[in-house]
Amino acid sequence: MRNSYMDSGKRFFGIFGGNMIKSYKCIFGIILIGFQFLFAGCNIPPVNAASAAKYDLFETQNMWTFILLDTVTGRMWQIQYDVQGDNRGGVELNTQDLASGKQIIPGRFTLHKTTNMYNFILLDQIDGDTWQVQWSIEKENRGVLPIFQ
Fold it and tell me: Is-above-0.70 flag for pTM?
């Protein structure tokens, strides 16, 4: 006597080539793709270990100067070190919270180098807002200007 339940299962899995293990993998893959489409509209930014830090340090082409970035707020400081004298310290580049009123996300802001050694592009990786960041030894040549909001 044949079991109609088993026959229907064989017919169902038969469309995937008849191998039940491969069939389960195929069905699992289809379900996984479905979940990706289901959650594609969620506003959950990808976070990796590097971008999850509150602060990040970016090299400039000047071997003594770095830019310290608060990746949550977009605040920045020009940091300088010295190995022989007493020329260590930092100055503010941006004290304004550029993420004010927005979701608090470590890694929200990052810096990108340009071909000009004194300029970087600050990017809000969530909203796509950008700013020109210019560092300098002279205070009057430092600044942060909006590019695209």
Answer: no
